[in-house]
Amino acid sequence: MNCPECGSPETKKCSLAYEEGTSYTRTEVPGGKEEHFSQTPLAAHCAPPEKPAGGAFKAAATAGIIAFFAWAGYKAVMAFKLSFHWTLWAMAGGFFITVGAVRILWYGLMGKSKKVRYDELSAAWERSWVCLKCGAIFAEEPHFGA
Questions:
Q1: Which is nearest to 94 in space by CA: 128, 114, 65, 118?
Q2: Strand partners, 36
Q3: For residue 112, what pLDDT is reported?
Q4: Which candidate, 12, 6, 13, places its Cα nearest to that of 127?
Q5: What's this model's pTM, rounded to 2 decimal places?
Q6: Where are the beta strands (DSSP E) in 1-146?
Q7: Residue 1's closest CA among 146, 145, 133?
């Protein structure tokens, strides 16, 4: 495949350039482990898109919901003198309804759009090539027919 910018035939898939130019090693040393990361400028130029963050927020939100329902259950027992059995059922029902609503909102409003965007960028990266002469990044043209 020739570069559309300079016409050079010296091109390489971005995924291959990234893989060849990136190394991450862990070695055992006396007293612990050492980690080494190195990357060539070409590999950094051809890096894949970053995965969207959000896992820490979901974990914190879930922990907060659990804590809220534990507190609310305790308050219900103390204020209304409910039996422990009914309090557990109320807490569990409220918890699952709230977690379901939060997950639907999170996925619908934020998570889904980030995941779709990441999937699009990742697919485009898989079709990308880099020119080893001028550094241009370009997409391969789809081939139709035989």
A1: 65
A2: 25
A3: 64
A4: 13
A5: 0.57
A6: 11-13, 22-29, 32-39, 128-131, 137-139
A7: 133
Helix orientation angle between 55-80 and 84-106, rounded to the nearest 10 degrees = 150
> Is the distance from CB of 16 to CB of 134 less than 8 angstroms?
no
Beta bridge partners of 26: 35
- What's the burial of 108, exposed, middle or buried (CB within 10 Å: 0-12/13-18/19+)? exposed
Domain ranges of the chain: 11-139
* Residue 51 CB-density burial (10 A; 0-12 exposed, 13-18 middle, 19+ buried): exposed
- By DSSP bridging, strand 22-29 and strand 137-139 are unpaired
Give the chain's end-to-end CA distance (angstroms, integer): 17
pLDDT tens string, the chain, 146 residues long: the values are: 899 999 999 999 999 999 999 998 888 888 888 999 999 999 999 999 988 766 666 667 777 777 777 777 777 767 777 676 777 777 777 777 777 777 776 666 666 677 778 889 999 999 999 999 999 999 987 554 44
Distance CA 84, CA 82 (A): 6
Angle, helices 14-21/112-126, rounded to nearest 10 degrees: 90
